Description:
Mean pLDDT: 94
CATH class of the largest domain: Alpha Beta
Low-confidence stretches: none
CATH architecture of the largest domain: 3-Layer(aba) Sandwich
Strand content: 15-25%
Number of domains: 2
Shape: globular
Helix content: 40-55%
Oligomer: single chain
Number of strands: 14
Largest sheet: 8 strands, mixed
Radius of gyration: 22 Å
Structural class: alpha/beta
Amino acid sequence: MNIWLMNHYATTMYFDKAGRHYWFAKRLEALGHSVTVFCASTILNKIETVDTGNKRWIIKQDGNTNFIFVKCPPSVGNGIDRIKNMVTFYLNLKPVCREYAKQTRLPDVIVASSVHPLTMIAGIEIAKKMNIPCICEIRDLWPEAIFTFGKTNENTLIGRALTVGEHWIYKNADALIFTKEGDTDYLKEKKWTTAQGGDIDLMKCHYINNGVNLAAYKEQIETEVLDDSDLRDSSVFNVVYAGTIRPVNNVGNLLDCAKIISAKSGYEDIQFLIFGEGVELEPLKERVTDERIENVKLKGFVERRYIPYILSKSSVNILNYSQNEYNWSRGNSSNKLFEYMASGKPVISTVKMGYSIIEKYQCGIEIEECTPECLAEAIIKLHDMPLDKSEEFGRNAYEGSKDFDFNILTEKLMAVIRSVIKQ
Length: 423
């Protein structure tokens, strides 16, 4: 088949050689299909762009995969520039697809992915023109995420308009893929399902979480070794966080937790290694210095290729989230969770999630309250745990990650594609 994947933000996947749609593309090609990825020429929150010259689009190849970069204005921050960037991608994507199809051939199916809904709207409209099915992949529930962050209210004019648009997408897509197991609960809450008198059949809803390329991950552990003495010291109990340092990740909570543990006798071997960058990195550095938090080391930015090695050298990996800035009741689709699991180390989550993967696979601890005290208690519990028990957590994590390997996830995607083509 000829499969088109549309993801506004897949631009970084081309350069990183990794990511959900990158691995989908590579696995689909291994199964004998032709794949094209459509993405923006811009990188979110960066001034760098893929130069399309005076053209509306440009093709770059990664092996047999065509990446189509659609010309868009730069997008830095969450203001008007980002809105312009999203709208331009939507407007340009349709003529770009027409031009590209004339040069190649029509696709058999389109898979249009959020984060923002305009990509899915474009995918549906393009598919209808081409008389082919469109699968919409919802990786973030917009506009609920906007309402949660207080950007607008569901009862405002713009809030109602966004909700109407969201419902239109769910109704008109030939199939829906949600990345969290409980996301269909949202449709039930809205009373949009056919069982409740609505017009969205749950039979067309599917669950394919994010995941990990296990073969590449294991290879990187061996080949992409970061020269860091803290990771080589086997006498230390390393509490590792790797990810963006921004408000939703609540990294300041780790510093508060570290202070609590440092005040306790007998836990001098516990140290916190925080890898990543973001808007809160500099304030946290100031806290570490001013408050003399000696058991925390802020490592800053590291290249993505080193992450598997870093996580494999931890004693425990921390999923550190804010309880209040996101609705966790429907599950977790964080790439980080599956990278943590693939490392074969225990996981501690600072939020207790619905449809809990950590609970299902018995691979760590979820704390009831997102407080430094509760986190410190969980870390100490794991520190004091018999070695065979903590190693069991790690084995369970790795075995669980196999269910989220992209070989398995691509098989699930192909089942959805076959179902819409059959219809």
